[in-house]
């Protein structure tokens, strides 16, 4: 480590402590501030004070000099006052002292471009000042937060100027200097943060702490995380007052107490220490980085040499950022004059330089002449420019003097003399390679301006190739500008293709450094703007715009558009604003061209080309609604619905009062089948049609309202009684009543589709309307065996079933709804939760309508909860579902049915839409139920074959005993009151009573078992129908005809006819538990019990009756034995042949299969014998046929009548089969009576 105690020299003039020091970019001068309330302007070469600057009334605490030109000095004092000074003359620029803060100004820093000054203060604020007006920009930046006082200790702009770092006692904030948005905020050091410094490349921020944490910390500017460990070198109680980074090397310096440490940035090691005799208050590196200038309590500026060994090891070969920008500014021109030159205010600049020349004792008058020469040359006043240049050189030869002479000579066309002047200028570059490099570029530009274009460009290209380590960006910028100039010349000569090529070369050169913005270029090479009036900020934009125009004028349309797009894709919003007028004109021209071409393509039905052309026009930021409308129409023809919808929305946005956008949107929505959205759009379109001239379009509202009325009428006409009262919406899972169902339809896609399609027809498609309404409101119904925890109405009311989470409880319901939804049905019905079990009126209506609902359902899903997945044929027959009473109508009524297994997969893996069309499944169901497959598929409710239907349900069970009867109401087409609690005998009795009463069919009386308390002719249980009816022998037609022929000789015609007429007019009646049954009566003459076991339950009796063959009857009842010859019985016994009207062979009897109303009595029997005039022979033959049929064995009823009571049927364990002894003895059958049986 190098230790140094003796400085190279010490500069004395201040009376007290020196608190601030900074050097000028021109390397010649330095400015200092002191406790003595003054500033000193120093000549670094001689060490003498050039000027003492008084103005502050308090201690001058901080100083700053503007980067680049050094034409501004800012000073602040401990009372918060701020003064701006001229960098060259040391004169005060502000008429009055600026009251910047209310407390000590702790830090000052100019932005890299010198347009803003940042001031930090102990009053807890940071402020930004415009260096032209010296007015504060925006509000003060508060450094306090949450009531915590945070004194601002240091402010520093990043090398790019985009960030502003602010150190306070508590934390460090990083702000976006343009927006003031806080980019990062972190604590920094243990207690107070004292100092800040950026590395030249802006990738690191260095911070210094107070006496409690005297370390330097390094922060990554991309993440704002600390890099490595703190730099340890200073010791307590030292506070690091200042940090500075070497302008062109990997070195850092820091000052604390009486020591100044030099660090190596790469490894954070201390490599040198400069010991001071007193406390160090401030320091800075010289511009060339070879010296350190420090000030402090010793009232002197000490100049220290950076050890050559260290410098040679650490110096960088190439500047890394704007921190080195001063090396590229070789003109010594103050800020005001420079700004005037940059702004093109040449007369102002000329006047300023003339004033400088006229000032007495101006030691830099030679520079003033040279600078005025440059300004006059800008005005193309070459003679006066050359005159001033020569005058400057005569006073004192200088770099600026010879540059101005070379430029003036080139302007006069004296290129050879100009080259000599430029050659002499190289003598004054101090062997600085950057200045030499820049001077060569200036020389090339001057030669170009002398119309030596080719030579100038070759010089620039050669310089680029020869010096790759120098500032290549400057070479590329210069070459690009020269190519733009060549392009402009070519454009003026109407050589448009050649011009486009020049502009393309310029753009290529500028794009080779994508990281450099136009603002960066204008800042770095500001001297080129001063010298030649170049607009470097607009260089890139000008090259692109000129290339677009050149391509357009050359007829290279596609290249012009590509060039335009590439330009607009990369420029920012500010650049777009600057070129707005040009861009609008360019887009307008091309937009109109492509619109016309697109319209032609659309008219020719070339839709792809039309879309492409309209798209180009739109991409040019065209906002014409007609372009979007026409492109949308072309997309509609291509059925690109969503794309057309986008264009329609744009048309509506651009021209909301027109119907066109809504017309395109409506058509697109229809095409995309988004009918629920299409309807409101159509309605809006209708509202826009008042001013439309087309008659067809004006008629659309009438079609719309007609279609709406027709659909409303179809809903009203629909037989809603065929649909359950409540249904589950399969989309939402919500339970809906009838009103909600209709409302759902009217807001559905199906409704909108129907409305849209209907109104497009002059004649409304009524059949289609009716079908759509019916289809939408049809539902899927579930047939299942109730489980132990079935959800009821109150469990799901006002809840979405899909959202109910209780395990198992709702799974069946949810799965069924999903099955129905996947099948395309909007509604689903389940008996467990879609009926209010507590509402007796609703319950009765629902149970009476159940068969009708299942019959008209779109689908009935049968869930076999106990049939495992992948079951084989036969599993359904074993399911508990097949034993339940309610399932009989649930599989007979539907037209479409599907069976599902335990896991909700189709039974037998049959994925067909209707299992009633599956021969295999229907055969299995036939075997399981005893119902033939044809009937299973085509069943119609009615009372035909009542005995057979009762047999289907005879082995079924229900949870509620009455349900065994109620479940059959629909099968017979009967509606009766639902009276739970009445008991099953009465429920079954009421059903059978209604069957007999309505149809006259007495086959329901054919059973064996125990009698019902409802009526003795009815069974106590439905299981009494389990055994099939007794099968009796039947005569063939030939046998009947033979028997009839034989009877003609023995039976009188009148007797036969009377007998027939009497039976033909006899009908059964059944009401109030009393059966009035027409019978042929055979009085019992003898009852004798046959011997049997002593404890037997059933008794067998031998029975004799008049006109009948003797027979045996087995019953559990004890009959009184008697014989007419020996005793008079206590009760009368009759054997009765119940009159069955089917024996009349009337083809229309009980023909009720197509009607739920059934047979209604004798008045409906058209053509009965009592109402027709029959020929005697026909009547006689019919009567004889009846007698022959009656002579066959028949099932008889044994009736008993106490002496003062009604008849009751005595039940038998087998059918009582009787037969007439002699059919020829018709008088034996003439006892035809209607008996009232209880």
Helix share of residues?
Answer: 25-40%
Proportion of strand residues: 15-25%
Q: What is the radius of gyration?
A: 57 Å
What is the terminal-to-terminal distance?
133 Å
Number of helices: 40
Helix and strand composition category? alpha+beta
What are the low-pLDDT stretches, counting only 5+ consecutive residues below 50?
315-327, 1148-1174
Question: What average pLDDT do the residues reach?
Answer: 86
Strand count, sense and barrel status of the largest sheet are:
10 strands, antiparallel
Q: Strand tally, please?
A: 44
Shape: elongated
Explain what the structure shows.
With 1238 residues, the protein is an alpha+beta fold. The protein contains 40 helices and 44 strands. Strand 8 (72-77) and strand 9 (81-86) form a beta hairpin. It is elongated and about 180 Å long. The model is unreliable at 315-327 and 1148-1174 (pLDDT under 50).
